[in-house]
Amino acid sequence: MSDIKLSVIIPAYNSMYYIERCLNSILVQTLAEIEIIVVDDCSNDETPKILEEYKKKDARINILTLSENMGQGYARNKGIEIAKGEYIGFVDSDDFVDSDYFEKLYNTAVCKNCDI
């Protein structure tokens, strides 16, 4: 079993105006045993630069950069391919979540013995 309880996958495309709020909400999760996979869907704004800055600050962040824009579904699937967590969660790059969001979901899934 992996030490990573949850892989959070964030597809991102030209998200420079809101990706920081999204990442900040994930980085303060009360469930600490997470990995954060941001799939940059070939952004042509400052998103890649922002992602690199965040990756330097937190080793839980993994950036997967696509060479061409393939859309959100494809980006999510690419994130799933490299995810190491016991469970997988998704957050869009323009969303943010409460600090206990993933802990509540994880604990419920474990308590109810959910496979999805």
Order of helices and strands: EHEHEHEH
**Multimeric state:** single chain
Q: Helicity level, as a percent range?
A: 25-40%
Separation, N- and C-terminal Cα atoms: 16 Å
Shape descriptor: globular
Secondary structure layout:
Elements: E1 6-12, H1 19-27, E2 34-40, H2 47-57, E3 61-65, H3 72-82, E4 87-90, H4 101-111
Describe the fold and architecture.
This protein is an alpha/beta fold and 116 residues long. It is built from four helices and four strands; from the N terminus they run E-H-E-H-E-H-E-H. The protein has helices at residues 19-27, 47-57, 72-82, 101-111; strands at residues 6-12, 34-40, 61-65, 87-90. A four-stranded parallel sheet has the order 3-2-1-4, sandwiched between helices. Strand 2, helix 2 (47-57) and strand 3 (61-65) form a beta-alpha-beta unit. The chain starts with 5 loop residues before the first strand and ends in a 5-residue tail after the last helix. The model has no long low-confidence stretch (mean pLDDT 97).
Could you write a compact summary of the structure shown?
This protein starts with 5 loop residues before the first strand and ends in a 5-residue tail after the last helix.
